[in-house]
Amino acid sequence: RQKSSSVICSSRRDYVPNYIQDPNYVRIFDTTLRDGEQSPGATMTPKQKLNIARKLAELGVDIIEVGFPASNKADLDTVKSIAYEVGNETKDENAHVPVMCALARCTKEDIDKAWECLKDAKFPRLHVFLATSDIHMEYKLRMSKEEVIDKARSMVAYARSLGFTDIQCCAEDAGRSEKEFLYEFLGEVIKAGATTLNIPDTVGFNLPREFGQLIADVRANTPGIEDVIISVHCHNDLGLATANTLEGVYAGARQLEVTINGIGERAGNASLEEAVMTIKSKRELLGGLYTGINTRHIFETSKMVEEYTGMQVQPHKAIIGANAFAHESGIHQDGLLKNRSTYEIMSPEDIGLYRANESGLILGKLSGRHALKSRLSEIGYKINKTELDDLFWRFKSLAETKKVITDDDLIALMSHPVI
Ligand code: KIV
Ligand code: ZN
């Protein structure tokens, strides 16, 4: 990717590196350190967060949401130190410098704290939010529609007066908001100086087609929308976060808010690895869209987040689960040995996963002779058909007693031939 120091200075987007002016470029906004850390039990130490931020920069994310400085003093200190350490040019002049973003409610105190943390970063961004759904305005905010618009407009203007030029404004619970009101809210914050609009499905309640339609409607009806970037932020309460995110892109969003391993509030957020690998795998069908992610860092980043948060990735999790590239059934193993694309839609090396054995096959009770012979040959045994027939049945009886047959098991079987 091109490094982000080449900046286009237009009135609005003076912070935007020029490679992302391409209409097909999809920005990746990673919120592992903010929404991800809001997963129950996922708290990380400041040092761990710094390590993750460095890894996210290496992964090539465009924007890192480093935290919510007004939520507590520890978060404020961490955001400040990450913005300084990761959000500035280093000695390596080719290193990618991501935008540093902090979350704030629509209050001067929150915005002041965000500015205090970010002002020395190379590309500082404020992410300010206010709810726009009837249910949130009535029960949580106890504010009228006019008050909500007034507050958002004045706080965006206040942020500009402090020095923020990159301002993301979020209509919290947009997925359940009344559309006419949403267009008005968004149009007003654009006039006040917002440069990115975040349209979240805060409670993960939208269907993909419903969410795609929402983004299309926002694009068609919001005054001034052509001057800003639309961002989507989807939660996974119905298991639809990634699907909704991709529908959002299809409808014109050019920023995706995601987390590593999909961690986040309740059932989590859309996962970075799923969204990015889908865009990469389906680039043609998606009209040439692409991201700046160096996908070969995905696996390592996922492992780091898993270790630090203690939130274990389920084995069958798409892209990064332990079984995502494991094949046990005999028919599948036979197909793979003939041509990997029979049962693999991407290669594990694309996400930086290097197989423990060349074939990548898991030997177990469903495996066939072909896979057994292939693994034996990888570990140095050349056997003829009679030997294979004998070994295969002993292998099958052993596999009835344990889940996975290891190389040591094979060596033990080979050292006790029956014939
Ligand atoms: O889910 C959500 O709406 C959020 C916003 C506060 C950005 O996380
Ligand atoms: Zn969220």
From TrEMBL:
Domain named Pyruvate carboxyltransferase: residues: 26-299
Claim: Transferase is one of the keywords in the record: yes
Classification via PROSITE patterns: AIPM_HOMOCIT_SYNTH_1 (PS00815), AIPM_HOMOCIT_SYNTH_2 (PS00816), PYR_CT (PS50991)
A GO term from the CC aspect: chloroplast
KW Transferase (keyword) present: yes
Keywords attached to this entry: Transferase
Pfam families (UniProt xref): HCS_D2 (PF22617), HMGL-like (PF00682)
GO molecular function terms noted in the UniProt entry: 2-isopropylmalate synthase activity; methylthioalkylmalate synthase activity
A GO BP annotation: L-leucine biosynthetic process
Membrane-spanning intervals of the chain: none
Record-linked NCBIfam families: PRK00915.1-3
Sequence similarity: Belongs to the alpha-IPM synthase/homocitrate synthase family.
Protein name: 2-isopropylmalate synthase B
